[in-house]
Amino acid sequence: MSTNKNTESDVVLIGAGIMSATLGLLLKELNPKATIQILERLSSAAEESSDAMNNAGTGHSAFCELNYTPEKNGIIDTTKALNICEQFEESRQFWSYLVNKNIIQSPKSFVNTVPHMSFVWGDNNVDFLKKRHEALKKHPLFEAMEFSEDREVIKKWAPLIMEGRDYKEKIAATHMNLGTDVNFGELTRQMIKHQVSQNGVTVSFNTEVYNLKRTQDNRWTIFIKDLKTGKKRTITTKFVFIGAGGASILLLEKSGIPEGKSYGGFPVSGQWLVCEDEKLAEQHFAKVYGLASVGAPPMSVPHLDTRYVNGKRSLLFGPYAGFSTKFLKTGSYWDLFKSISTGNIGTMIGAGLDNMDLTKYLISEVMASENKKVEALKSYFPNAKKENWRLEIAGQRVQTMKRNKDGKPELAFGTEVVNAADGSLAVLLGASPGASTTVNIMLKLIEKCFPNEYKSPEWQAKFKEMIPSFGLKLNDHPELLKELRAETSKTLELKY
Predict the structure, then answer these.
(1) What is the DSSP letter of 70?
(2) Is the overall model pTM greater than 0.90, yes or no?
(3) Phi/psi of residue 190, nearest 5 degrees
(4) Do residues 60 and 182 touch, judged by C-beta distance below 8 A?
(5) DSSP H helical segments within 115-172, as ranges?
(6) How many whole angstroms from its chain centre is CA 99?
(7) CB atoms closer than 10 angstroms to residue 255
(8) Which of 192, 265, 328, 481 meets the CB 3.0–4.6 Å disulfide criterion with 249?
(9) What pLDDT was estimated at residue 434?
(10) Do the Cβ atoms of 371 and 389 come closer than 8 Å?
């Protein structure tokens, strides 16, 4: 096959998901003259992790996610919850900016008000939730959170989780009206649609990146192939971002940057139970999160959710974790094996041996029958009937493995960006809270990869225009928090 003439671009974004869409839009707003090429191996944007049914759609703000507030020596650590909530507020502000600029016409097409709840049962879990509520409510970000052990109050919040429940069972719940359901797939598609309408921005679908190499002048040559015609070409760029979901780990290895040498990845697949019965869907209006099973990865915390997809309201329960050697839902069964190298095999073996609970959990999930899955649902919805629910394949995630500061192998939970030392390349790895905190992740990436421009008065002013709380912690400025929540709720047509 012949290789066509090389083209040049200021920025290349690999993967047309929420991360690339957000970074591309930010960079174009900051520098309207920038040339940007977006490369996607599938036929349209947001078909992998960003697609509505490939993620939970939770606007992750730590209102309901119990794994963000671990208990250590009887004390609730709120650090991660506060950070994630701050980051989600930045996302809300940026999305409001997009609506105000008419980049997105209808906010309801991608974000809707859905209260966030935590729900537990058993003496120890109730005590934990009560302590969690007390710890969080001290902070302005969480002061609206309600706690109750009263069955009638909880029934009012979420009737289905109370119907048929053992009256002797000790239960508790927290409730936040400020929660949201987000269709990240729709948001991604609208952002990319706007970008390609601008001068200097192109998107190439059905285009696979099969290699990338650093040039002598510290730029990057991206080797790509048109999957429909088989034609190959190259792009030379000053900066490349790899936001290719699970496949990012493979491209990180191909880049050869020393910063990524010891990283490995372990794929985790998933399934949802979905109910599209309109009568049932109307009886539940919340995202109800519980506690994860022992050994379960954070992306497998069970929850019963109200979802809005393409304007239709439905219920979703899961996810049920599983195992596949694919790194993408549409990937290859050889992905895991291709990713193993002399640089990361020690990391992967070491992290695996230290986390046998995860392995046992995944095996039990893979072996679970559909009836077992329905039984898990009944822990949250006691009167659930199998015939009202169908199994849906969820997105593929890759559990990141790395070396810590002491050189010890470990699992890396959450979202992580690996940068080349000179800032010419950045790779996004990991999962939840991911999409919800994309804006903050991309701001930090821009600071590392474009340090001089980031500090310039022009870019600093633009950051403040797009994200009014930029540079501030809203938890330390309760009046500004109240003002911005009211403004963004109005712009995004959310109930406040």
Answers:
(1) -
(2) yes
(3) -70, -40
(4) no
(5) 123-137, 151-157, 159-162
(6) 21
(7) 20
(8) 265
(9) 83
(10) no
